[in-house]
């Protein structure tokens, strides 16, 4: 007997559709996109990155079309784009699902991040302006507020805005292009791991020290603080997944070595 297409054979209960609708309700994008496919991509992309859609979870096209209030065609196009970005995979005769996470992938992602992001922040620290400092500080405040209110989506957006306020200050479009997909993949790991051991106060102090080093125009201290911040995240996620230690911390130069040290 020939295999039946998953969309015809996968009759999920109304409660399953309601559950999907409820989880995507706070994340669905309603405007600012030129096409329905772009809106579908933005909504599903954010849902995957923030863990609203979990690794291994199936992505039934008809249900997603209903939840996002559009036809199946833009959903299919969005899933193709997500497949190309490595966030979704198509399983023969079963349809699309969110890609699984692994220790090997985590290691590769953070190896690349540890090469690129300290480079970006070195350049940023050398040219950091008062406007850059305000943008990053505002994002940090939004992040603290979101964490206090347990607003996962708002916290993710503010955390992303903070880091990219720093990286944008480097003035390199190519660095941003290279960092962005790595950042998005690693955010999936952060959201998939247990939040209990995250030591949020300590993480926020790390953010403060990174920003302080940029404001002081101290590229080596900014790069070392960021390196250790990223390593701490990778080690927490690896431990939570039952994996080994992946990276080593670096010594942080003392404050006062920046361009503004003598001013």
CATH superfamily of the largest domain: GntR ligand-binding domain-like
> Reading side by side through the largest sheet, how are the strands ordered?
1-2
Q: Report the CATH C-level class of the largest domain.
A: Mainly Alpha
CATH topology of the largest domain: Four Helix Bundle (Hemerythrin (Met), subunit A)
- Report the biggest beta sheet as strand number plus sense, adding barrel if it closes: 2 strands, antiparallel
**Spatial shape:** globular
Written as H for each helix and E for each strand, in order along the chain, the element string is: HHHHHEEHHHHHH
N/C terminus separation:
80 Å
Low-confidence stretches: 1-14
Structure description:
- This protein is mostly helical.
- The chain has two domains: 87 residues, Winged helix-like DNA-binding domain superfamily/Winged helix DNA-binding domain (Arc Repressor Mutant, subunit A); 138 residues, Four Helix Bundle (Hemerythrin (Met), subunit A) (Up-down Bundle), CATH 1.20.120.
- Strands 1-2 form a two-stranded antiparallel sheet.
- The N terminus is likely disordered.
């Amino acid at each position: 007997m020939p295999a039946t297409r998953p969309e015809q054979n996968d009759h999920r209960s109304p409660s399953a559709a309601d559950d999907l609708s409820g989880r995507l309700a706070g994340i669905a994008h309603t405007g600012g996109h030129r096409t329905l496919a772009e809106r579908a991509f933005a909504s599903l992309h954010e849902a995957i990155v923030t863990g609203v859609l979990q690794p291994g979870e199936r992505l039934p096209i008809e249900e997603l079309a209903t939840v996002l209030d559009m036809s199946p065609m833009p959903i299919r196009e969005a899933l193709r784009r997500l497949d190309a970005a490595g966030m979704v995979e198509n399983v023969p005769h079963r349809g699309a699902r969110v890609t699984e996470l692994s220790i090997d992938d985590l290691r590769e992602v953070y190896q690349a991040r540890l090469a690129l992001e300290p480079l970006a922040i070195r350049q940023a620290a050398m040219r950091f302006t008062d406007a850059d400092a305000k943008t990053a500080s505002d994002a940090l405040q939004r992040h603290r507020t979101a964490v206090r209110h347990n607003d996962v989506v708002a916290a993710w957006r503010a955390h992303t805005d903070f880091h990219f306020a720093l990286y944008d200050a480097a003035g390199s479009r190519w660095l941003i292009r290279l960092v962005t997909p790595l950042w998005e993949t690693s955010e999936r790991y952060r959201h998939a791991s247990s939040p209990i051991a995250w030591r949020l106060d300590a993480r926020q102090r790390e953010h403060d020290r990174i920003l302080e080093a940029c404001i002081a125009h101290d590229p080596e201290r900014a790069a070392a603080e960021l390196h250790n911040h990223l390593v701490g995240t990778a080690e927490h996620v690896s431990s939570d997944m039952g994996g080994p230690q992946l990276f080593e911390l670096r010594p942080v130069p003392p404050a006062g070595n920046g361009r503004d040290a003598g001013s």
